[in-house]
Amino acid sequence: MRFQRCKMLFGDTDFEKLQNAKILILGVGGVGSYALDCLYRSGVSDITILDFDVYDETNQNRQIGSEAVGAVKVDRLQELYPGIKTIHQRMDMVWVAGFDFDPYDLVIDAADSTKVKIEVAKKCYKKLIMALGSAKRYDASKIEVASIWKTHGDALARKIRNELKKAKFTKKFTVVFSPEDDKCKEKGSCVAVTGAVGLTVCSEAIKKILK
């Protein structure tokens, strides 16, 4: 039985909560694809993924599905995870302004654009789990979970905090981040961290659903 071990862990009532949760994942690259895999294997049956990219050869060090170079990411992942819903859409400010987040119980932000991340936070902070910088690092033990206002040592977190302060936005939302010092100047990456961030995001999502 596919979910037998999950039911042993969560119990029937909580497992039913997972199955009924509606989750939106923004961005399915090195972080988002692992969050998807974890949620799918944990019994969440109503998952929508949104991404506009196609796989590039350089994605193969960290992204699930990336062996299919040239394929649209959401299409490939739908083949690997039957039953998920997909939106092939570029994430920009116009999209955030017009998109209806209300149907979803949780929104996982694994997007790359800082401006988009800030606008998503303003719009749905109550049900948001945001993944922050995971490139340029390889020590997964440094990963932390906190409110955006309690983050430290993460340049992207600092930038987002500053922009939210300028906008006089003071609400809390959950972020997964790493204060590990950058190990390179370019966008080097290791799946030990990008994948672990995605799995940590999934863990936080499960905790929120069951709470």
Features:
211 residues; alpha/beta; Rossmann fold; 7 strands; 40% helix
Stretches where pLDDT is under 50 for at least 5 consecutive residues are none
Average predicted confidence as pLDDT: 97
CATH level 1 class label: Alpha Beta
Number of individual domains = 1
Overall number of strands: 7
Strand order of the largest sheet: 3-2-1-4-5-7-6
Number of helices: 7
Would you mind describing this structure in some detail?
With 211 residues, this protein is of the alpha/beta class. Helices cover 40% and strands 15% of the residues. It has helices at 4-20, 32-41, 73-80, 93-98, 114-124, 155-166, 191-210; strands spanning 22-26, 46-51, 85-88, 106-109, 128-131, 144-147, 174-177. It has a seven-stranded mixed sheet with strand order 3-2-1-4-5-7-6, with helices on both faces. Strand 2, helix 3 (73-80) and strand 3 form a beta-alpha-beta unit. Helix 5 packs across helix 6. It is globular, with a radius of gyration of 16 Å. The two termini are 26 Å apart. 39% of the residues are buried.
Summarize the structure in short.
This protein has 211 residues and is of the alpha/beta class. The protein has one domain: Rossmann fold (3-Layer(aba) Sandwich).
List the helices and strands and how they pair.
Blueprint: H1 4-20, E1 22-26, H2 32-41, E2 46-51, H3 73-80, E3 85-88, H4 93-98, E4 106-109, H5 114-124, E5 128-131, E6 144-147, H6 155-166, E7 174-177, H7 191-210
Parallel strand pairs: 1-2, 1-4, 2-3, 4-5, 5-7
Antiparallel strand pairs: 6-7
Helix pairs in contact: 2-7, 5-6
